Amino acid sequence: MTDTEPAAPVRETAESIATMEIRGAATIASAAAEALAEQAEAAAASGETASDPAAFRASMRAAGRSLRETRPTAVSLPNALRYVLQRMEGETVDELRRSVVDATEAFVRQLDRAQDDLGQVGANRLADGDTVMTHCHSTDALACIEAAVEQGKSISAVVKETRPRQQGHITAEQLRDAGVPVTLIVDSAARRYLDEVDHVVVGADSIAADGGVINKIGTSGLAVNARERGVPIMTAAQTIKLHPETLTGHTVEIEMRDESEVIGSEAREEIGEIAVENPAFDVTPPRYMDAIVTEHGQFPPESIVALMRELFGEGAAEPWAEP
Fold first, then answer.
1. 153, 132 in Cβ contact below 8 A?
2. At what angle do helices 93-123 and 139-150 cross, to 10 degrees?
3. Annotated binding-site ranges for substrate
4. Cα within 13 Å of Cα(61), Cβ side
5. Which residue ranges make up the annotated binding site?
6. Is 66 within 8 Å of 14 (Cβ atoms)?
């Protein structure tokens, strides 16, 4: 490791996040924070950074940039980096190292509590005997369903498979393990099965200041169909998913993933030269979402900006940026 090069654990975590070996906003946030703690330990024991506070800070910013570049739409990632790096303080390298490690530990503890609290809030929207429809894989959405089951409610689920990576299979397995009867359906069958469900529960990768929900591609179409069918839909999202940069008018970048997730090499050869696009996310306008459930309570989408300002202020610094 050079003085400013991220340590091996940071590079490995960045690669795992980029390739979706590490997925789910809370999991990504926790992994990123813990990678910063590992960077702090490595930098405090390596070369010039072990004795130079300025070099130590530079190495931490470089690690933050390396992690930030992996998943542009998953706002929990920069929020985790902000939490840790903004609490990096001290006059000596050891003090700086300790502040990073302490901030990481505090952040992970908050994440653990947040999902439990969110689950209880979301469970209160579900009634005994309800059937819920899910899209993709969201530990926050699962927390609401699992909490309802723990309250003694009988819940069943219709799970969309969620192509092209079929994250719905993970949801189906975890709900089955929680004792929830599951029906797995192809994505294009969602409208048909909405007549048989009482709630739609989805997660979010980020939430814009106007209450728009950025989530796995297909969420917006599901929300429009749910509204037309009169089925309430809620987003379950910890506050690490709130997108503070939207307060200053920044747009949310939608990640475009590799075409190989959509079309294999053999099919590509057979079909020939065609354009293939693979957007990972879409934006659901707030008018199609009934509620956003967080660890701080449930909110109408249009009022989420008030919570965002309370937590993050009017703007959001980038502590990983070059000075």
1. no
2. 50
3. 23-26, 71, 215-216, 241
4. 13
5. 23-26, 71, 215-216, 241
6. yes
Distance separating alpha carbons of residues 286 and 129, to the nearest angstrom: 28
Query: What predicted TM-score, i.e. pTM, was given to this entire model?
Result: 0.77
pLDDT in tens, 235-281: 999 998 898 777 644 577 788 999 999 999 999 999 999 999 999 99
Q: Which amino acid is at 256?
A: M
Which CATH architecture best describes the domain 8-117? Up-down Bundle (1.20)
Helix (H, G, I), strand (E, B) or coil at 202: strand
Active site residues: 136, 205
Report residue 25 as tokens.
């906003």
CATH superfamily placement of domain 124-312: Translation initiation factor eif-2b; domain 2 (3.40.50.10470)
Are 62 and 6 in contact by the 8 Å Cβ rule? The answer is yes
pLDDT tens for each residue of 101-117: 999 999 999 888 999 99
